[in-house]
Design a protein that fits this description.
The chain is an alpha/beta fold. The protein has ten helices and nine strands.
Length: about 260
């Protein structure tokens, strides 16, 4: 059974249709990434999934035991506010020291509990937000451009941590991202959105789809060269169902180096 299922979902704001006839299911254990240009409805789709946005048409259903952990795009904390990572994890609901330690360890931030939130680097801050999202032991983890503002190695390291979380907890992951250079290595399935689903499938198939290239331009070819292959695309909301994918070794190396630097700061 799917954790979340959207069926013919449409959302209108005033006289504008933001999403039209979106049908999408998120299954246990998979990593799904939503990509699309600004204004394509990505944030509206996430809001619909978590129940913050009611559809104008269509439906959203979820499994009875759904537990969602959410990592926002950004969170502002007053830099003059003296609050440690450990205390932050107990707001608004208190958690035990063991719960906090376990969540930080799962997020790759086990050494940060006593640090001040205001003193964290961008990558460390996002890992703490990830730890907070993991406190509820989610079976669906949602990330809204959670690596925005991080450099490429930092983004790659964060995505590798997300994969480790998926392996450890067995949770599904739904991400919105603009970082095409790492999305393709981090996802099981990519959904290309522009008010409707233009293309959907395994990353290497989406990368070769004309709808995808029409949205992101021919400049994406270099970043996605690893995934080149022959593919005949038809606009049936599926860009193929075979071929494996491997994360580039350089990406893994950069990610590991970034992990070490982040935790040593």
């Amino acid at each position: 059974m799917s954790l979340i299922a959207l069926k013919n979902l449409s959302v209108r704001y005033g006289g504008n249709t933001v999403l039209s006839n979106v049908t999408l299911a998120i299954n246990p254990g998979e990593i799904v990434t939503i990509v699309g240009p600004n204004g394509s409805g990505k944030s509206t789709l996430l809001r619909s999934v978590i129940g913050a946005q009611k559809p104008s048409k269509g439906s959203v259903s979820h499994s009875p035991d759904l537990r969602i952990g959410y990592v926002p795009q950004k969170l502002h904390i007053d830099p003059t506010l003296p609050i440690t990572v450990r205390r932050f994890l107990s707001l608004p609901d208190k958690v035990s020291d063991q719960q906090a330690a376990d969540a930080l360890e799962q997020a790759g931030a086990g050494q940060l509990a006593s640090r001040q939130m205001a003193g964290l680097s961008g990558g460390q801050f996002q890992r703490v937000l990830l730890a907070r999202a993991l406190l509820c032991a989610p079976n669906l983890l949602i990330l809204d451009e959670a690596t925005q503002g991080l450099d490429q190695p930092g983004s790659a390291a964060f995505y590798q941590q997300i994969e480790a979380v998926r392996q450890s907890l067995g949770c599904a992951i739904l991400m919105v991202s603009h970082e095409l250079h790492v999305v393709m290595a981090a996802s099981d399935r990519v959904v290309c959105l522009n008010g409707h689903i233009c293309c959907e499938g395994e990353p290497e198939h989406v990368a070769s789809a004309p709808e995808y290239r029409a949205l992101f331009g021919s400049g994406t070819q270099g970043a996605l060269a690893l995934y080149r292959h022959e593919h005949n695309h038809s606009h049936d909301h599926s860009c193929g169902h075979d071929h494996g994918k491997d994360a580039p070794s350089a990406l893994q190396s950069d990610a590991a180096g970034s992990d070490r630097k982040e935790l040593q700061r």
